[in-house]
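Morning, I've got a small favour to ask if you have a moment. I owe you a coffee for this, so here goes:
>
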Amino acid sequence: MSDLNLEELIDRHLRGELDAAEQERLTELIDTSATARQDFVEQAQWDTRFADALRESRQSPRDADLLTADRAKADGPWASKPTFLRLILAAAAVVIVSLSSSLIYQLSYPQGRVPGNNIAAQRAVSDESIARITGLSGSLIWTGDRGQIVRDVKIGTELAGGTIEGMAPDSWFELQFNDGSTVMISGTSMLTFADLGQKRLRLREGRLSANVTPQRVGKPMLIHTRSAVLEVLGTQFDVEANLASTMLNVSEGKVRLRRLSDGSEVDVPAKHHVTTDTDDDLLSVLVPDSVHEWKSQLHLKPGNYGKWQPATKQQPASLKAIPLIPPSAPHVTLYLAGLSIHRSDGSPVVVLSRSKFVVRGRLRSKARVHFGIRVMYPNGEFAGMFRGDLHEKQRLAAVDGDGRFEEVYDLQHFTIDPAVYDRRDELAASPDGLILDGVWAFTYIGGPSGLEITEVELIPPGKN
């Protein structure tokens, strides 16, 4: 990362030029310094005023020079920037400010306090609704396209666009557009969506599944990830995105994927999948048959919820549980670690009625290790969440002298997770025969337990 000062970082942010390391540095400065927060807000607000003045008055080049000169007198270091460059930045500020408004809003209301109330905020955007919420569970935050933050979104809420973020492994969110197309995110995912005559979505990270109705000619749904762009005319599919790759699995229809690194494209038909994390030609391949066993590979640092810790000479790689406050119980703090399910060959992992899960790890304090899973239907749609420790109270985990434990959860004892119990008539009654999408473990003892997960394994019936 280049050695930029705060002003340069903010300026590059407003121009959309920061790389990932610089974005992380700016976020750190804003999070830890009140002065940095104030500087960010003031600089972004200036660009807003500058753009508004230029746009509304349609002033002459000389007027623009005077406005730039006025800013130079006020801010010193800005005087060295050429007037022509400032004019270019001003012309782009309309777009820049829309990208920055959410961050400005969060800085203005750091504790998530929204002026007025959340009901009013939801009503404010419903006049221009492009979609409505048809399902949700777990900890979610929605940031509207006007910057408002809403933490208690509800089924039936009309939305005009914005960003929805799943904050925990048990989070999921379903959105139905006005034309009947549905999209759903699960786990720790982040999705931005808009529709100005053409649906445009950005999956920053996590998993998305969709059932898309036929789109207008020349106006396919576009889904952007860090490494690819998907064109969707009408189909069922699911896609998983992280910093390094995009994995697409098509159930029905066809999706075109373009890899950003080299511009190569491939049409992915039904029952095929493709991934961008290869230097070879971009090829779609037939989805292999399902498998009934799976083992986590934490040494590969997969996408997870928790603090990843690399292997040492004494200990294997692990995922340390981190605090989670359920939105329905703000007085409760869980210590939770979660894993998404992924196989490099693309084969779905299907759980059977007498399968068993084995969870291995370490504990610093005596605790019950609670365990849950998330499953989906073969077409990628959310099927439900289940817990393996509700029928019978889970005993305290037995640990050895080094704090290591091994807990076994039999699938025949799994019950519907309380988080989705109100939708039990719509979702699957049991996980039998469904595709495993995610797993998580947590403790609840009134404080940190030191829970670390070193391995999770799915064992099929008849195999010890």
In short: The chain has three domains: 6-108, 118-286, 294-459. The domain at 294-459 is CATH 2.60.120 (Jelly Rolls).
